[in-house]
């Protein structure tokens, strides 16, 4: 039954399973049966609602056994919508099938079988939903967590690199200042030494004959 759920779900999202190859829509060979309408308010677009209705219509049609049962009864009551009185409509549909061998017990028991079929289909669908949540949602959440951790790691690396850049800039400024001081000190000492040397040369020439 899990593959059945995958076939339903694969019509709307990608299901990573070999059963996905069987998910293509099949041509209906029977008249569609109106699926039960839930009273719970849901928010689905028309295309999604139609696909699910088509699924349930085909589910009933494929499960229909030879001979009259609830499936044929349902079709007949739908065909008799012109009869306004519901009781008259139900009785007329039952009378038409009764001549073909259907009784009230078979009608109710076959209807209960369709209920069980719907419950089995729902179980398969929800099982597939749970699996898909793990595959498609939880895995993406893990990727998000890993990405956020990576962002935090990179942010820390950026902070460290900014601190390193600041340290290097300070070292550069300090070294430049030292070089400027050394250059200025050297130039001053050079000028003083050269000046004294030139003065001594002149004095030697002057004083020593």
Automatic annotation (TrEMBL):
Residues 19-45 are annotated as: Disordered. Residues 137-181 form a coiled coil. Keywords: Coiled coil. It comes from the Bacteria. Residues 19-32 have a biased composition (Polar residues). This is Uncharacterized protein. It comes from Filimonas lacunae.
